[in-house]
Amino acid sequence: MNIQPLEFEQPILELEQKLNDLKRRLSERNxxxxxxxxxxxxxxxxxxxxxxxxxxxxxxxxxARHTARPFFLDYIQQAFTDFVELKGDRLFGxxxxxxxxxxxxxxxxxxxxxxxxxxxxxxxxxxNFGSPHPEGYRKALRVMRIAEKFGFPVVTLIDTPGxxxxxxxxxxxxxxxxxxxxxxxxxxxxxxxxxxxxxxGSGGALGIGVADRVLMLENAYYSVISPEGCAxxxxxxxxxxxxAAEALKLDAAGLLEMxxxxxxxxxxxxxxxxxxxxxAANLQTAVLAALRDILEIPVEKLLAQRYDKFRKMxxxxx
Length: 318
Known about the structure:
The chain contains 14 helices and 8 strands. It is α/β, with parallel strands linked by helices. It has 2 domains: about 50 residues; about 250 residues, 2-enoyl-CoA Hydratase, Chain A, domain 1, CATH 3.90.226.10. Strands 1, 2, 3, 4, 5, 6, 7 and 8 form an 8-stranded mixed beta sheet that branches. Helix 4 crosses helix 13.
């Protein structure tokens, strides 16, 4: 896959082009430039490390939205086995933007639910750009109840800019579908692990985000509103999205510091799209560790801990 560079990655791209020119001259003129090539490679590596270890919140948002980034079904192929998709909410229809099913991860049987984007126009239309309809959330809840019935843990992979805000979704009660999921997940009598793998936008993410352990990939974001939406409200212009991203504390490090998530899943240098295999292995390791941490907890104690976890969020003054 041809990975399109982001704006802040241009210094790396320019150095890589110079390196390619150097190698071409080496082959054309039969000149020994081994030392120069080595120095250039070291410079590229140092520049790459300098950029990626000092990313701003807005730059992480850009990485989270990268079209080459692994999506839900990519992780299903690499981190899970024996996936069987379950379709339909038994009320209206199926929502392709919210694939759900049964699978195994590290030998543990589980229900797995996620949001799926597309990489081209045709796939994005099929997946509704990763913005689920009400039937997507109702299908997810149906699968969660199957997991509860058979004693399977639930794993959710969150990657959505937000639930679909169209007229049809409103007519079919999108807000009610999300609210019911939040309520029912809070009392679901089986362990739940949620991982934000890309975008975690507003109620669209919360609809499958109530969990005993909430994890985030290193370059994902999780926010009540998009940086552009926040900028349009507070600064009256979307160009202030970088400032909004910093103010929202939407990156994994900021959310972990505030106690809103439970852990950060490391990504390969440059983002998960640079090495999807390593990213999937890291996700599998993190999910298995979280599951093993909670699978042995008695259900009543698990529910009490889940309630306390979310009840403590926020700062209040009276």
